[in-house]
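PROTOCOL LOG
Step 1. Enter all chains and additional molecules of the complex.
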Amino acid sequence: MSEFRAPEERLISFRRRAFIAGIVVLAICLLLGARLWHLQVEKYEELHSRAEGNRIAVLPVPPRRGEISDRHGQVLARNYSAWTVEVSPAQVKNVTDTLDALAEVLPFDERDRKRFYRLLQEYKYFDSIPVRAHLTDEEVAAVAARMYRMPGVEVRARLFRDYPQEESAAHVVGYIGRINERDQQRIEEHGDTANYRGSEYIGKSGIELSYERDLHGTTGVEQIEVNASGRAVRLLSRIPAVDGNDLELTLDMGLQRVAEEAFGERRGAVVAIEPESGEVLALVSMPGFDPNLFIDGISVVDWSALRDSPDHPLLNRAIYSVYPPGSIYKPFMALAGLASGARTPEQRFNRQGLFVLGQQRLVDRKSNCQNGVDLVRSLTYSCNTYYYELAHEMGIQAIADFMRPFSFGSRTDIDIPGEAAGILPSPEWKRQRFKTPEHQQWYGGETLSAAIGQGYNAYTPLQMAHALAVMLNGGVAHQPHLVRNIIDGSSGEIRQPQRPQPERIELDPEHIETIKHGMVQVSKVGTASRVFADAPYEVGSKTGTAQVFSLQGQKYVAEEVEERLRDHSWFLGFAPADKPRIALAVLVENGGFGSQAAAPLARLLFDYYLRNEVDAATAEREPEQ
Amino acid sequence: MSGFRFRPFEWGASAIRVLDPALFFLLLLLLGYAWVLMASASPERLPTLRMHMLVGIGAMWVFAAIPTKRLLQVAPPFYALGLLLLLGVFLFGESSKGAQRWLDLGVMRIQPSELMKISVPLMMAWYFQHRSDSIRALDFIAASLLFVIPLAFILAQPDLGTSLLVASAGVYVLFFAGLSWKLIGPVVVAGLVGIVALVGFGDQLCQPEVDWQVLRDYQKQRVCTLLDPYQDPLGRGFHTIQAAIAIGSGGMWGKGWMDGTQTHLAFIPERHTDFIFAVLGEEFGLVGGITLLALYLLFVWRGLYIAARAPLLGVRLFAGALAMMVFTYVFVNIGMVTGLLPVVGAPLPFLSYGGTALVTLCIGTGMLMSAARSRSSLKN
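Step 2. Run joint prediction.
Step 3. Record the structure below.
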């Protein structure tokens, strides 16, 4: 050890070590020089011939993107091949001159030119950039004949994406678009850089985004001999690309379209779920948009039209917009009452529709809500006072604790991105949401408005349909999902996407039956009876109205209120009642009472989905005539 | 003080006197090389490169004028600041490309690990200077902590390239301070054994199920690609293969300036930054490569010579470590481009495009010049 050394001695030691370092540096320089000698002299012949005479280009072979279809095989997203003329900037001396020369052979407009320059800046890899797509056969011939004079220009067959259903189910399928800087970063983070070499597009929204890994496939590699001007001379080796997996969705496009057409110009959302499996049969958000517009970069005009429309067509109302549920929350409140033991089905209340809390007197004037109101009746006629009293007894905490497992206030984790969590009101939520102590405090009156689905409650149509499906399924909560089968791109093997084990909520089957009975009564004699009176199948339902605008003390008269301030119309229902095959949540924005707008729309959906039952019923009736 | 007098010639003379002629000459040659290569690899970047160079030379001048003793004095606050920023990155850093290295200060984004490349050896030099009356074995342990702590943060980012350089800076200071050969010997032997094992048993070690414990998956991949670049010709092996082809095809004299086909057909990735040596190899051949190596060798030797002649222990240690770090960059970068070392993101000093790196290097050169003067100023 070099302890207690005199300065001189230390200086000598340092100089000795600096000298040794200098020798090591020299040795390493010699090593690097030797390596250069090895590459540039010994292996010169081999490497020189690889670089000069027979340049070998390692080119990616992009895979075919998987196609998307509905549960009956109707195609939602597919590929088609078309000719494009492309320029490889690396092989071109002057890009502008080349484009000018090309323009003499093949007309293209300023927009194509602008897009080309934009892509030129974005592209970092050795690849070619499209100038114009969808060439006709004549144009292909014209370019091909003059290609020898324009090195770096090529005509290629490329696969393009197409959404044949256009606006239909656009929010579910989503769309692809050109890979941008942010996508590139995400690709690098996932270590997929090699697999995306040669890919131009990537999923941007919907299924196209969430199943990107399945749809994309695996890029192949081609080693090609290129001559001095960079043209391919010979294929040396090839690892073929593995096509992306096809997806079969749970959607029933027939049902989806019935809903979309029924909306017409109105705004709103529909979610239909098969309770047994959690499969989403329809997921509608109106108005829609044409995903084909996005594939090659949307034009400014189209984009501002979509963005500035007061109807917000890009918004997926079914999973992202939250609305107060209004009275369609009552079945779950009633279930909470039964499950907690606060209510039995037999308990009747004769209070003339009056509930008093402190100095507040809350009245329900509906004649059916005055006397002998039991749980079934409270659902049938949507009696508010029954639920005020129930909520007051249970307390907001117990209600929130009961509702939480149904995914109220949390994402259902459906397999498309962009879901909202909604708001399940509770004292704790309020403490986190607000800053000042007086706002953070939970008031008793708020429990009452929460009980009838107003107040802070805010859920997506998906959450409502999901919660109903969970109840109908005896408390077994399947994750709602849109992809049924994944069909392997290379082997054709069919597999199901991996999903977590369904959560189980402990519910008494008898309680569920009571609620279902109450909801059936709604369709028979209650608020939805006019719509379902003649249905050839039994329907369980609940209508609801979500306040958009509160008129202080004034009476609400729909005709007098401006359309956008009118109440939202809700419908929640299932059919057939004995063994539900479909659970439905319908929301019509500014549609007024639930029975007016949402329920008739639901009827159309049930009629379509249960058409076999309808047909059978009609067949039975006909012989009698 | 005799009041202000306008004496431009005297000022000019004293301004020039702060420069070390040999280092300045070598620096100009290297920058000339950089200019010529950039004109071929990426001509559109020349105006920015000129800016970088002017700022770099200005910064070098400023740091050359600051006495090294003064630099040593500010080492502890400088080091503490760097450590604080690293902690900041660790806690709230911004991710970019899977690694957390940047700290967004609102005005600008900074990469504190860059700062540590200079402040770690400076701090350790300060420490030894501070203890220069009686350096004991314990001091080496304490000094080691000074570089091991920031190293842990940088490794966690994860940034293998910078970690290696910061670690090497620390090791150089320890070595120059007189670390016992009994400790250096085994480490060198272990390193050699590791390399031999990797080359000998690479196939088994690179199986996907083998977990390398200390290195992350992507780092392991880089090492394995080095051993067999053809395993992954589109991804990680692509760089290595294309760079080897470019260099090898240059031969003895090169294909001539602007005539590198690999360079101009864009086969070389990152040709203006980390892989610029491949452009050199292709266009100027073995002769050009050896010339560049000779320039670096002279530069590093001059740095070591300056260190050996400095009177203060701290200045000696700092200058010696600085010179060796420049060389480490050279070795890691050229080793990587020629396929001797795995692909770690290390620029080639003075040649790779990148403002921060160039200015940092010029500051380092300025510091070496200041160290060169410390002897004469002592005499005066």
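Step 4. Note key features.
The mean pLDDT of chain A is 85.
Chain A touches chain B through 55 residues (CB under 8 Å).
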